[in-house]
Amino acid sequence: MTTENPTTTENPAPTSATSSTPSPSPSSSLSPTGIPVPAPTPVVSVKPLVLPAPDRGEDLRVRVSAPVTGGELPIVLFAHGYGSSLEGYGPLTDYWAARGFAVIQPTHLDSRTVGLPEGDPRIPRIWRLRSADLRRILDGLDVVEAAVPGLAGRLDRSRIAVAGHSFGGQTAGTLLGLRVREPGTEEVPNLSDPRVKAGVLLATAGRGGTDLTPFAAGQFPFMNPDFTHLTTPALVVAGDRDDSPLSVRGPEWTADPYHLSPGAEGLLTLHGAEHSLGGIPGYEAAETTDENPARLALLQQVTWAYLRHALGIDSSGWTAARRALEGGTHPLGRLDTKEGAGRRP
Fold first, then answer.
1. How many other CB atoms are there within 10 angstroms of residue 77's CB atom?
2. Residue 187 pLDDT more than 90?
3. Closest-CA residue to 299 (of 279, 328, 319, 323)
4. CA dist., res. 229 & res. 213, Å (int)
5. Nearest to 258 by CA among 195, 150, 147, 169
6. Would the pLDDT of 164 be above 70?
7. Quick one: DSSP state of residue 209?
8. DSSP one-letter code for 261
9. Does 47 score more than 60 pLDDT?
10. Higher pLDDT residue, 22 or 230?
């Protein structure tokens, strides 16, 4: 048994495992914020659940993690970064699941585990297929709920959030109202979903056009987001050392989703954080370049508190986070907020 890291075995049939953890103090001593975070509860995690997707070319595989007890669980759909899979992001998804959320993680078609060949006709549409993956999960919640032992009747479908890291941030953003011009056309589809009430955008790309490097402009023609219609409440997380090779602007680029989105009501800037934001891609993940347990703990706490606030569950944690971080004196990060941002259901 491991702390907040439920282990499952990949088999043709879905498998599950339960993580049982000792109870730490209610709030991590690594980054004291005063956020009233509860001790973790055991989590059941099941993978892979398979949702038929004949129009996708590959069935959609997802992982579901949820606390073994409790009802009216709010739902978070998590979109991974380019090349990752449902196996990643345990430091965040396990943390949320151990504290009252049902977290659903799809494997998108760009995953290294799928291995699309060069020239596959789906590649230019990857950005749009990713959005469709999240909607397919929402449409298939009955199947998902029935497939996880003990989960039936415990989901609160009136409280659904999306979250994503890097490319996954753009994916999540499309369900919040972010729009992307279809490469090679004049179409700018509205892919927002009214079932989604809030979002968390982690190290997400900013404006396109002249803000992109030549490499990014050539390789990722869909990287031209329009944030003006992103009106659903969202928290944006950026690292002040996330100097992306995709933009000529430096770390400030990933703060664009906050500054340009009417719905973005918070910007958490993590001091010293690079693209991995302290270690969210996975436990001992090779791509993590800035591992920092204290920074990660702060991110875990603030995102958990924000999701509870934005979904109308409890705002005490978000209030505590604002009190601790808005003054700009916390050594690990700063929180900026906009009053009145974001439409409420």
1. 27
2. no
3. 279
4. 25
5. 169
6. yes
7. G
8. -
9. yes
10. 230
Q: With 70 as the cut, is the pLDDT of residue 4 above it?
A: no
Task: Report the chain's mean pLDDT, rounded to a whole number.
Answer: 89
Q: Cα angle at 206 between 201 and 208, to 5 degrees?
A: 145
To which residue do tokens 């934005």 refer?
A: 310
Q: What's the rounded Cα separation, in Å, for the pair 112 and 133? A: 17
How far is residue 191's CA from residue 171's CA, in Å, rounded to a whole number? 10
CB 209 within 8 A of CB 248: no
Chain centroid to CA 289: how far?
Answer: 19
229: its two tokens: 């219609």
Counting beta carbons within 10 angstroms of the beta carbon of residue 65, is it exposed (0 to 12), middle (13 to 18) or buried (19 or more)?
Answer: buried
Q: Which long-range contacts (CB under 8 A, 24 or more apart) does 7-15 make?
A: 8/45, 8/46, 8/47, 8/63, 10/47, 10/48, 14/46, 14/47, 14/48, 14/49, 14/50, 14/147, 15/46, 15/47
Tokens coding 138: 């929402």
Residues 82, 166 contacting (CB under 8 angstroms): yes
Tell whether pTM > 0.85: yes
**Mean pLDDT, residues 194-222 taken together:** 94
Going along the chain from its start, the domains and CATH numbers come out as 38-337 (3.40.50.1820)
